[in-house]
Design goal:
The chain has 432 residues and is of the alpha/beta class. The chain is 31% helix and 8% strand.
């Protein structure tokens, strides 16, 4: 069965906002600047999301839409979005960089004067769906959930760049308790503080969900207003004009007069040289490494199953003494964890070394004294006499090199045994 091609549409402004705040939510945007002082948080986040999309989804069709300024909604309701905070000063210049980035990636930009990017995305998504193409819209704006259908999926960015979620009709029903197409009427009743959509005063979220569940739509509610509970009837009567205005503001236009050619949005690759140069200017080193054409020619993926390289142990003085922390209480199993498997080859005889009794107090169990849980005796250095040149492990059994192999070489002051490990330089004590 042939898979359905998928068209990825990106809400440029919404994604730039969401990625900017995701990276600067701790309040420190100073780290997202180049050496020349250019802010880059929004650009970096947008580029990271775009690269992840190209790497994981390999889109066949791809396009980006940006807002162009004032729209018909501002003409109808001058207070539309008036309560929104002003765009951060360091984000505004990054929008031009994002446009430059999109162009370097060879992605077409879709815009229409007098309409928001949501309207353009809605129109293009509906046209592509009618051409038997699946559509995924990448955005940070929940208003686009009203477009979710069997062919259209809404991918909402999360607080972190890696927390985006896909919403289909069933997901919208689970999250909001209404159908995607009812989201317009839901906002007409409840309003939206982020866009300064007034709604109907006194109608809350639960009430709106209940009314839409019973009457189906805003028109159905007003057509059967006499059947609405009395405590809400008066509020709906007084707020009728506000509800209809809010419905107009909340509905995404899906029939914008926009010339659209699906084949013109087929993504065939990007200008690797232009993207790499832009990333260098913006100092996106980590993103630069994700571009295959910009990797060094000698870079290659490591083989997990290749043999480990053999590293010769450092050459140190044969009379060096290992100093370990005083009163170190490690069990014999701890020491064996570091021991190397003995080789069958003949090992050279150990060199003579002087004992260091200021080191670990653990000695052979053949001595007398108090015994620890591990079965190793603790004894005073004064009570010991030594054989000439034999070292031991806590188990009173010497290693094949006649040395107690204790830990890996980490310093030039340690002396390796023939197995390539450091000797703890203990001697067998004589039998009392």
């Amino acid at each position: 069965m042939t898979s359905i091609p998928r068209f990825y549409l990106i809400d440029g402004h919404a994604l730039a906002y969401r990625t900017y705040y995701a990276l600067t939510r701790a309040g420190d945007a100073s780290r997202w600047t180049t050496k020349a002082g250019e802010p880059t948080a929004g650009t970096y986040g947008f580029a990271s999301v775009l690269l992840r999309l190209l790497e994981k989804d390999a889109p066949e069709y791809l396009a980006v839409s940006f807002d162009t300024g004032r729209t018909f909604r501002d003409e109808v309701y001058p207070e539309y979005k008036a309560t929104r905070a002003k765009m951060p000063e360091d984000l505004a210049p990054q929008l031009d960089r994002i446009r430059e980035l999109v162009t370097a990636f060879g992605i077409p930009i879709l815009e229409r004067e007098g309409y928001e990017a949501d309207d353009v995305l809605g129109t293009v998504a509906q046209q592509a769906a009618r051409q038997d193409v699946a559509v995924t819209i990448l955005t940070g704006d929940r208003d686009l959930l009203q477009l979710a259908s069997d062919r259209i999926t809404i991918r909402l960015a999360g607080q972190k760049l890696s927390e985006a979620l896909d919403y289909g009709p069933a997901d919208v029903r689970h999250k909001l308790g209404i159908e995607p197409h009812q989201l317009v009427d839901y906002k007409a009743l409840v309003g939206d503080t982020s866009d300064n959509i007034p709604g109907v005063s006194g109608i809350g979220e639960k009430t709106a969900v209940a009314l839409l569940g019973e009457f189906g739509s805003l028109d159905g509610i007003y057509a059967q207003l006499d059947q609405v509970p009395a405590r809400f009837r008066l509020k709906l009567e007084q707020g009728r004009d506000s509800a209809l205005l809010s419905q107009l503001l909340a509905r995404i236009v899906t029939d914008v007069d926009l010339p659209f050619d699906l084949q013109a949005c087929r993504w065939t690759g990007y200008d690797a040289q232009a993207v790499a140069e832009l990333f260098r200017q913006l100092e996106f080193r980590t993103l630069l490494d994700r571009l295959p054409s910009t990797r060094p020619p000698d870079s290659r993926q490591l083989n997990m199953f290749a043999a480990a390289p053999v590293v010769a142990p450092p050459q140190v003085a044969p009379d060096a003494v290992i100093d370990t922390p005083p009163n170190s209480k490690r069990s014999s199993t701890d020491w064996r964890r570091f021991a190397r498997s003995p080789s069958t080859s003949r090992r050279p005889a150990p060199t003579r070394c002087r004992p260091n009794w200021s080191a670990s107090p653990w000695v052979s169990p053949r001595t007398t004294g108090s015994t620890s849980r591990s079965g190793i005796s603790r004894i005073s250095p004064a009570a010991l006499s030594f054989r000439s040149s034999r070292c031991c492990r806590p188990s009173a059994r010497p290693c094949s090199a006649n040395r107690w192999t204790r830990s890996a070489i980490t310093s030039s002051t340690t002396s390796p045994c023939s197995a390539g490990w450091a000797c703890a330089r203990r001697r067998w004590p004589s039998t009392p």
